[in-house]
Specification:
single chain; two-stranded antiparallel ribbon; MetI-like fold; 21 helices; 3 domains; mainly alpha
């Protein structure tokens, strides 16, 4: 009788490798080494994503709720306001803390920064803090309340003290409220700002609307171009592809200013219309510095981002599918709608999502050609970052824009499915 190798293995004896190590332990160590090597390969990419993407976004989100300017430069008053949260207008003790902090602010040259922080919610506070700090530095002693009220009666306003109490908190959601056109009234309750100051919510809606229009126009113009690229012979499609990619090799500023030269009131298009007698010299069409100019310029700039995903999908569709539908009696339109178009939906989804997200964040082109009616929310973010220096409000606006994009991405995933999207 022959004995197989399986029958000769004693189940009570552990398996070992040729060098005497238990086989289970050797397999576990080999698996662990393979995982470490795989992780080491992705560490550089992981660090790059963390440093250039995750960390800046995290910093922006934190900056939108963190502003320690007032508490850092007014420590005595911050401590007093923390200990007396219900006092509207304090007595001598609170004014003493205010006067001493103002004197230090004058010496450290920080009164402007403190006033700017309060000025975000109460206009006119910047000059109030600067002038009061100069005079508070000359105080020899009490009574501080009487002296400060002699400088400016504003120091006796309950609203000012409520604003300073909110500003003294290092972490606050007030910047998100301001980004939604909300403010605190005299009683400290949230309410909408006056109608002439309600700009951010309107800009958010305008940004979404214009981005959707631009994405639709890019799809309308890019679909036939991508189809032509996918069906032309190689020598012709390569030439057409060069023309599609040509904008990538041209400066964004050059492309934008070219549209200004074409569409402004004294531009090329209006001159042609006047020459042909279509419009009079005094009836030139205003195509620039409005929403129309923003849509046209941004559609031209973002069109390649729609064509390339569509082309990458259309190139993989065998032409025999449409020919088979035609041979079975389908009309060209029916074959396109029933056979060809459904296979291009992954490219359509990728192109629309890519163009829409890019359009939401554009600010150079709207700033140059948009005028007052063609500005997007990104222009206000840039304004607060570069000019007003209200970085916390800019971060809050950016965070809301980020949440909107994530929400739209989630809706797209639920309706269409991200797994069906193809970028190449």
């Amino acid at each position: 009788m022959t004995v197989s190798a399986a029958d000769s293995i004693d189940p009570g004896v552990p398996l070992v490798t040729p060098d005497g190590r238990p086989l289970k332990l050797a397999l576990a160590q080999a698996t662990r080494r393979a995982r470490i090597r795989a992780f080491a390969l992705v560490v550089p990419l992981l660090l790059f994503v963390l440093v250039t993407f995750a960390f800046p976004i995290g910093q922006m989100l934190y900056l939108s709720i963190h502003n320690p300017v007032f508490s850092d430069h007014m420590p005595r008053l911050t401590a007093y306001l923390t200990e007396h949260p219900d006092v509207q207008v304090p007595g001598e003790e609170g004014f003493a803390a205010l006067a001493l902090d103002l004197a230090d602010a004058k010496k450290n040259r920080t009164a402007g920064r403190i006033g700017t922080r309060v000025n975000y919610e109460r206009p006119g506070s910047n000059s109030l803090f600067k002038s009061s700090a100069r005079k508070a530095a000359k105080f020899k002693g009490p009574p501080y309340k009487e002296k400060l009220l002699e400088i400016r009666s504003d120091w006796g306003e309950p609203h000012l003290w409520n604003v300073m109490r909110r500003a003294s908190a290092q972490h606050t959601l007030d910047f998100y409220a301001a980004a939604l056109d909300l403010t605190h009234d005299e009683n400290g309750d949230l309410s909408q700002v006056s109608p002439e100051r309600r700009i951010y919510v309107r800009l958010f809606w305008r940004t979404l609307f214009l981005s959707a229009v631009i994405a639709f126009l890019c799809l309308l113009l890019g679909y036939p171009v991508a189809h032509l690229l996918a069906t032309l012979p190689l020598r012709y499609s390569n030439l057409l592809m060069i023309l599609v990619l040509l904008p990538f090799w041209t400066s964004l500023l050059v492309r934008t200013t070219s549209w200004i030269a074409l569409m402004q009131s004294q531009g090329v298009i209006n001159d042609i219309l006047v020459t042909l007698g279509i419009v009079g010299d005094d009836g030139r069409v205003q195509m620039m510095y409005n929403q129309f100019g923003t849509i046209i310029a941004m559609t031209h700039i973002l069109l390649p981002f729609m064509i390339l995903p569509l082309y990458s999908v259309m190139k993989t569709i065998p032409p025999s599918y449409v020919r088979a539908a035609r041979s079975l009696g389908a009309t060209p339109l029916t074959a396109f709608i029933k056979v060809y178009f459904p296979q291009t939906t992954p490219g359509i989804g990728a192109g629309i999502l890519l163009v829409f997200i890019l359009a939401i964040g554009y600010y150079i082109t709207p700033a140059l050609v948009g005028g007052s009616s063609g500005q997007l929310i990104s222009n206000q973010i840039a304004f607060h970052m570069q000019k007003s220096l209200n970085w916390s409000l800019a971060a809050a606006l950016g965070a809301i824009l980020l949440f909107m994009v994530i929400l739209l991405y989630w809706v797209y995933d639920r309706l269409v499915g991200v797994d069906k999207m193809k970028l190449g």
